[in-house]
Structure formats: C-alpha cells, structure tokens
Amino acid sequence: MLDCSSTLRYNRVMISPEEEEYVLARAYVPEHILNLMVPISKGEAFLAEENLYFAYDNWLIFVGYPLDKAFSAARCEAVAQQAVDALRPEYLWFIGPEMPPVLSTACQERQSDGYYKLDLATLQPKPSLLRQAENAAQEARVEIARTFTRHHAALVTEFLKRENLPPMAHELYRAMPDYVAASSTAAVLSAYDKKDRLTALFVVELAPGTFATYVLGCYSRKHYVAHASDLLFREMIELAKKEGKNYINLGLGVNAGIKRFKEKWGAVPFLAYEFFERTFQRKKRAPLLRLLEGKL
Predict the structure, then answer these.
(1) DSSP-derived secondary structure for 249-282
(2) What percent of the chain has pLDDT over 90?
(3) Which fold is adopted by the domain 8-113+272-292?
(4) CATH assignment of 117-271?
(5) Residue 94: pLDDT band with limits 50, 70, 90
(6) Domain assignments of the chain as residue spans, ordered by start
(7) What share of the chain is helix, strand, coil (3-state, %, to 5)?
(8) Which helix (H) or strand (E) holds 10?
C-alpha cells in the first residue's frame, strides 16, 4: 500500500463532500467525473490545488486538466511532481492538454487525440440524419435504464472481437459492468429489434451539472438494425436536454470511423488530449489494461 505519511498535503483521506461538489461544479472532461473514474480505475481520488489524480498500490493517474481551466505547464508539472514524489509510484499515467517536459522523459507509451463537443444550444442535425434515425425507430425500440445486463456484456464481447481498439479503449468497454453498477448517474441506452434482441447500446454519464458525457457505444452485426446507433444518438441528445445539459462531451476521436460518426452529428474537437505512460522502476511491466481490470 501507499505510504503518504511523509507529505501531509497528500494524505489518504478521501475527498470530502465539499470537495466533491467543487470538482463536479467545475468538471469539463470525463476524467473529472468521480462517479466515472473511481469505479473504472479502482483507485482513490485526490485533489491537489486544482488537479485531480487517482492512485492505488503502485500506480498513479494524474489528470492535467485544472478545474479552474487556467492551464500552466509549469504549475501542472509542479503539482504532478509533488504527487509523484509523495506517492513514489512505479507507474505514472498522465493525461492533459500538454505533456510536462520533465515528467514525460523516458515515457514508454504516448497518445495524442482531442475531445469532441456537441453544443446543444446550436445543434442543427441534418434532416437526412434525423430521417435515418426515425427509420431506425420503426425497426427498433429504445430503453433507458441504469443496469448493464448479460445481454449488454455479450454485445460488448461481440464488438471487441471484431474491432481493433487501443488498449485503453478496450478496457473501458470491459469495465462497464462494474462502472454502471457503481454509478448512480450512469444511463444505459439500449436499442432492441422487433424480436427483442439487443442491437446497439450507449452508456452516458449525467453527473456534471452542465454537460453529459458519452462514455461509449457499440452495435451488433448479428442482430443488425440499420442506423440503430443514430437512433441512440438522437435519444442521447433528448436525454441530455431533458436533464438540462448545455452540451455533450463525446470523448476522444479514437479513430477515423469514430471521428466521422461524431462529426456528422455536428461535434467538433474542442480540447487537446495528450497521454503518456512512464515507468519509474524497471520491474516486470504491468500494462494499464491489467491494472484497470483490478488484477494487480
């Protein structure tokens, strides 16, 4: 276990209810949402100045997006370095708009991407897109629930077998049962065909006051319904509006196909994303995907 006694500022006291409210009120990326990150990472959440980080055992995930949005490479690097010095992790995973030069030296993995945003106030989907969603509604019905069933898990398994996703994205899908069970603000949007077979699903997080977060989505080829994902996208928009959200954070681009899907609905990249992994001690390598599964 971590020994944080040497630095009072970084103790293992859980984030207070007041700090939770502070974080939620200022969240603007999925990694700020405790209801999402704690179940998926299985770590404890810490707040240092304006930055969140998550830690457990021998690893540390540092979120380099400050809650006050006043990003400074120097400040980010200083706060992250303090966390590293206090917790002395073997593995550091950093995400932020820029890579701190010192911390990113000798990084083992790196990824560059961008968050996509769908502004609900200015949204004007193409009529052809809405017609496709409506056509899908004639062939499938939509349910919104807070449970992730064995049918959802089977659809995820089918999807992962055919899609070559990055390890981080792959394990996000695998973590869905635990996450949905733990988050009281997660919504599972499901499309069922006329034989009541699950054809597509979306998972949406509704905890932040001003925005919804699209966590992930997938569809079935075994029980395919044309444009079922567009139908769920339309329903996600309606759900976000009903919940009083201003916009939907659609997450990362990931690949060309996912980018096209988000962009056709009017989403635009609005925030740079940099990820790196660094190992501080050369022991047997422990990939992030195993840690996220809670196997270490």
Answers:
(1) EEEE--SHHHHHHHHHTT-EEEEEEEEEEEESS-
(2) 76
(3) Aminopeptidase (3.40.630)
(4) 3.40.630.30
(5) very high
(6) 8-113+272-292, 117-271
(7) 35, 30, 35
(8) none
